[in-house]
Amino acid sequence: MKTEQFIIPDIKNLEKFAENFLNIISLPAIVLLSGSLGAGKTAFVKAIGRALNIKETITSPSFNIMNSYDFLYDAQKSKLLHYDLYRLSEDDDVSDIDIFEAAEDKNFLAFIEWPQKAERLWENENIKVYSLSFEVDFSSHKEDENISELPRKITMKEIKN
Ligand SMILES: Nc1ncnc2c1ncn2[C@@H]1O[C@H](COP(=O)(O)OP(=O)(O)OP(=O)(O)O)[C@@H](O)[C@H]1O
Ligand SMILES: [Mg+2]
To answer: Which residue's CA lies nearest to atom 31 of ligand 1?
Structure first.
């Protein structure tokens, strides 16, 4: 399937990328976000929240695993589900994570940080899955520089249709 790459020169340009991404995809969909700690996965979901006019502040779901937000999509009540599976261990039962149940039968857009831990949750579901992989070269980071000023490379793939 098609793979595309984008360079986001700084955090300000993330807004535009989020808007474009929303124009490319259709709901319901699962979006897998991969990339190292600090690569920009949560920042991207925050930008999506702004693009969808979600007024609540989107925060990292690292402690509660999932945060859910309501928004309107084509005038339909929809859910943005934001997962961070980083803290799950090999022995945790991922079958407790039920995206479809969390969506409460509404149209949804689910973002999953650290998705490696739960791949089988959606492999047999009839749903579109996209993958966004975030790369940042922290080695080019100078001491007086903020990491928000480092460019990010984002590789987008449609992995399941
Ligand atoms: N596209 C970007 N351009 C520049 N800076 C960015 C970009 N995306 C994120 N950042 C900055 O990088 C820092 C870390 O980003 P973020 O919290 O989104 O990482 P993460 O990938 O979610 O990490 P984790 O795996 O720890 O959850 C933030 O301070 C953010 O401002
Ligand atoms: Mg994060």
So the answer is: 148
Q: What is the CATH number of the domain that holds 25?
A: 3.40.50.300
If you measure from the C-alpha of residue 38 to the centroid of ligand 2, how many angstroms do you get, rounded to a whole number?
A: 7
- Kindly give the number of the ligand 1 atom that is closest to the alpha carbon of 148: 5
Tens digit of pLDDT at every position of the chain (161 positions): 689 999 999 888 999 999 999 999 999 999 999 999 999 999 999 999 999 999 999 999 988 899 999 999 999 999 999 999 998 887 787 877 899 999 999 999 999 999 988 877 887 788 999 999 999 988 877 777 777 778 999 999 999 88
Q: What is the pTM assigned to this prediction?
A: 0.93
Domain range spanning residue 30? 3-160
Best residue among 148, 149, 155, 156 to mutate for probing ligand 1's pocket (most ligand atoms within 8 Å of CB) is 148
Strands (E), the chain: 3-8, 29-34, 66-73, 76-84, 107-113, 128-135, 152-160
Contacts of 33 (CB under 8 A, 6+ apart): 41, 44, 45, 111, 112, 113, 115, 132, 134
Total domains present in the chain:
1
Nearest atom within ligand 1 for CA of residue 86: 25
C-alpha 44 to ligand 1 mean position (Å):
8
